Amino acid sequence: MNFEQYQDYFRQEAHALLSIDSASGFTTRATQHVYDIAAALGYHTEKTNLGNVIVTVDGKDNDHAVALSSHIDTLGLMVRSITSEGYLMMSAVGSPILPTLDGEYCNIYTRSGKVYTGTILSLSPAIHVFPDASDRPRDDKNMAVRIDETVHSVEDVQALGIMPGDYICYEPKTVFTESGFLKSRFIDDKGCATLLLTLLKIMKDENLKPAKKTYLCFTTHEEIGYGGATLPADIEELLVVDMGCVGDDLTCKEEQVSICAKDTFGPYDYDMTTELIQLSVKHEIDYATDIYPRYSSDAAALWRSGNDVRAALIGPGVHGSHGMERTHMDGLMNTLKLMAAYLELI
């Protein structure tokens, strides 16, 4: 199978999904977008009460079920308070690296449906004014949103309909380079969610059936810890498709698919992980096996919820996670191939 012929489809759908603001708890538009794509391809598609999108693919054996999951919720911010000068103080949603947000453009979503633009800045934003402009801490006590409206007081901001609890979503800045890199915020995990959409497209175009009944699950609360808690009850195995880690004491490169043997929550299923390694060798898929030192996934939420399900984790190597992220198309395609191999499509 020529996976590379689907790279243009991946780029198109990745751009579209990454452009939709969808911080955890604010995923309705992203959920609908993914739902519409899967349904248009002809798959049975449903939304759960908490917002997960579950796509059911008939297998050659429907008496046994497995699932693949990726999350479409992202990191974000929420209005915490309004300063006397009319700036918005912030509370993090998930765990963004706040210093990387200094200078980022953002959208502020009000409860009434209005959307305002702004910029996330240090409270000492000008070198000509503030002696600590370069070294003031970049954290939630020392950064705020400057709204692109004429406001000079709490009352001015309130008159716009902005209040504590409103979402602040910052720009992904998605770029595909000629050298094959995807650089963007929120590759974790919209890059992998797009791989799931691409796999659905491949199965439709090539008239392929997985070995077992398969759920492709797009979860919406992973960044805050419970995305995998409400997956289908009949699954026997879960393959989490999330970002692979690149960096200190790790072997994975951005061009590879990473197979995670263990993360913060503990080891992944030994037999599943071994099978993924063997499949990579068999199909000449460029891979690395690593232990992630500061990481958890949909599998952790699944297990904490008491589900008797084996689980493993794979994903493209991603550099700069929770900041300005980057991966390579080779890593994405290697992940897609391993997903297909796991489902016995190749």
UniProtKB/TrEMBL annotation:
Any one GO BP annotation for this protein: proteolysis
Keyword match Hydrolase: yes
Cofactor, free-text remark: Binds 2 divalent metal cations per subunit.
Pfam annotation, one family: Peptidase_M42
GO MF annotation list: aminopeptidase activity; metal ion binding
Keywords assigned by UniProt, alphabetized: Aminopeptidase, Hydrolase, Metal-binding, Protease
Cofactor: a divalent metal cation
Positions contributing to Zn(2+) 2 binding: 188, 223, 322
Annotated SUPFAM superfamilies: Aminopeptidase/glucanase lid domain, Zn-dependent exopeptidases
UniProt-annotated binding residues for Zn(2+) 1: 71, 188, 242
Protease keyword on record: yes
Active site (UniProt): 222
Family: Belongs to the peptidase M42 family.
This protein's name: Putative aminopeptidase FrvX
Native species: Hespellia stercorisuis DSM 15480
